[in-house]
Specification:
This protein is mainly beta. Helix content is 8%, strand content 49%. It contains 2 helices and 12 strands; from the N terminus they run βββββββββαβββα. The strands form 3 sheets. Strands 1-2-12-11-6-7 form a 6-stranded antiparallel β-sheet, with no helix packed on it. Strand 11 and strand 12 form a beta hairpin. The protein is globular, with a radius of gyration of 17 Å. Pfam families: LTD. It comes from Adineta steineri.
């Protein structure tokens, strides 16, 4: 699944808009998948899309690589049960979780859980990031990536 978002930013030097496109891609082998990874390094979102089965992510790990930092590895050491139709937000220790309203949960028929991790940051990314989820046997189960494409103005000038 690919989602494209157009982000506009103001350029203080020329009072004109710079248009960029950011592509977000995700892939999973099974019902445990990424639903998002913030380029700012604040939060990684994992969800169980199964309507019947819960999963224990103990022994699973996340690897995140960005254009601004070396690879980061986070191991889920303790029992970590993800019930069916549940979204888990793994917040960095310096970020502030954003509460999700009960109305949103009812509309999406999904449970949301925010967890403040001990990890300082998930590492910010300027132009690209790749985040991978591995199960307890080391098999890759999910990937989430983002890439910001150069603006069409920059391409024309080059």
């Amino acid at each position: 699944m690919t989602k494209t978002t157009i982000i506009s930013a103001s350029n203080n030097d020329h009072d004109e808009l710079i248009h960029t496109k950011t592509l977000f891609r995700r892939y999973s082998k099974g019902p445990i998948m990424f639903n998002g990874c913030s380029p700012s390094g604040d939060v990684i979102i994992i969800e169980n899309i199964s309507s019947k089965k819960q999963y224990d992510l103990a022994g699973w790990h996340i690897e995140r690589q960005t254009d601004t930092h070396p690879m980061l590895r986070y191991i889920i050491k303790n029992q970590f049960i993800v019930p069916p139709l549940t979204t888990i937000e793994l917040w960095s220790s310096i970020a502030t979780p954003i509460p999700i309203s009960p109305e949103t949960q009812e509309q999406q028929q999904q449970s949301f859980v925010s967890v403040k991790t001990k990890i300082l940051t998930w590492n910010n990314a300027r132009q690209w990031s790749v985040t991978r989820l591995f199960d307890h046997t080391g098999r890759e189960r999910a990937i989430f990536s983002h890439r910001t494409l150069p603006s069409s103005d920059k391409v024309k000038k080059q």
